[in-house]
Amino acid sequence: MCNNYRLHVPVNVIGDAFRQADRPLHFPDGQPNLPATDDIRIGDRAAVITLEGETPQLTMTPWAWKGPGGRPVFNFRSDGRRFDGSTRCLIPADGFYEFTEAQHGEKRKTKWLFTMSGAPWFWIAGVIRDGAFAMLTTEPGPDVAPYHDRQVVVLAPDEGVAWLDLSRPEGEMLKALPAGALSVDRVWPPAHS
Predict the structure, then answer these.
(1) 86 CB-contact burial (10 Å; exposed 0-12 / middle 13-18 / buried 19+)
(2) Residue 26 Cα distances to 82, 151, 179, angstroms
(3) What is the pTM of this model?
């Protein structure tokens, strides 16, 4: 499951997605500095967008709430669930990682970076509970299936508002993308020249 993602997207670019929808992004805690980050991990505070009434707002929120047994809930299955009564959020990213078994001669697992083909960044659909967020997951699409049996729900930049206000049916959004929508590159171990 996705337990690591990347964000190299300036705050003004994130804001543009909302300006284009005539719903300017607000910053209730002040506009944060979002430095380019290769590895956002469980427990880190990260940028998420929620709706406050009709107003989209960006806040820095911890990734993962504590489950009943005390373990962190960082991914949350969307299958068979409805989220109309939930606090939905958007997690801006330009890549997410999946891990597979270590390659021969390596001790660490192989790390794969998934990016959206033809787009410099995207949203990951999420929900907020107990002041923290989790990423929604679904059955893997053809691009992710060779690497993992689940995947995060990825939305194009212009689809974010629809997730926040549910102006489109959830079933249209909470699904894997078609083949070729995601590109994958191995980041560990690095390719040898």
Answers:
(1) middle
(2) 27, 29, 35
(3) 0.94
